[in-house]
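To whoever is on call:

I kicked off a structure prediction for a single chain this morning and the downstream step that reads the tokens threw a length-mismatch warning. I double-checked the sequence; it's 397 residues and nothing unusual in it as far as I can see. Pasting both halves so you can look.
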Amino acid sequence: MTDDLPRNQAGFATRAIHVGQEPDPLTGAVIPPVYHATTYVQEGIGRSKGFDYTRSGNPTRNALQLCLADLEGAEAAFVFPSGLSAAATLLETLPTGATILAHDDLYGGIYRLLADVRPATAGHKVRFVDFSDAEALKRAVAEDRPDLLWFETPSNPTLRIVDLSLVARLGAEAGAVTVCDSTFSSPAGQRPIEHGIHVVVHSATKMLNGHSDLLGGVVAVSARAPSGLAERVRYLQNALGAVMSPTDCALLHRSLKTLELRSTRQSDSAMRLATSLERRAAALGLERVVYPGLASHAQHDLAARQMLNFGCVVSIELSGDLARVERVLTATRYFHFAVSLGSVESLIQHPFSLTHASVPEERRTATGIGPQLVRLSVGLEDPADLEQDLIQALSRG
């Protein structure tokens, strides 16, 4: 895992703190003010200071988007009021009847959008395939000649890894737009655009924000994306009114300043926890422990090549019945039984009944999302406390 930069470019942590956050020129305030205004005085017909109405543009939002684009290595980034609104707006760039090839291991909300909503509202033809299976993916691209390839890596919640460079190459050969949902990693953990991917999307609610106090989404568009795509997203965001509030923009920009620190610490703690649980799996009643950082992960080598760290999510499969799963979910002290991930507090949740409940049961089962699967999001607590907490919950369960 490397993070090589030209020596004339500031490092990631430096840019996360300073890009878009220059001191206020009027007051000298180190942190720029939050612009809550909804409307702006015009100097005359066709003359303004660059703003007219906050839906169309806002200084606080612009500063955040500038920083996110820089961190992702994108031409432009756009922030939305939720991850799903970001995804829905991006999908509006496709023509009616477009063909989408999607990873078969997606967050339930995205699955619902692709499987149910877009076919009904836009006539999109959507096929799901395992993007972590290179040969299956190649065949599907050759057969379908898709307009768009949509995938997650690491995937939610089974943590399958998709080869970013392979998808970029296949997309280029097919003339398809490639979209990576990088929510589970963030630009502190991987940068898909550097591997040739056209668009990166995030639920900013998760790792980017990391404090469980705002909803948000991001679309970051590479300069190598099809001509005009960034401007089309900009137009549609304004036309649909899918914008993040100035308050949430300021909160998210604040969170980016600690992103690298949080990401590194949470990944280190997740690695420690996954290693400990795997070592004690039999004694703790675990069928398997899934984490890209473990040598036992089927795609560990690929993850090590394309990721800067392995992320904060660990998935475990329990032995026993659903009653035991529920006992474990409710027996932890520091892991809160709640959806979401990437926050400073640790979370434990049940994908089968929560985040992936909208996915048909046969598809959940086929992708390894069974009733015994539990997803852990490792926070910033002392890793020894988290380890002890899970061991006692699994032992009691």
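Update from on-call: the warning came from a stale cache, not from the record. Cleared it. Sanity check on the structure: The chain has a mean pLDDT of 96.
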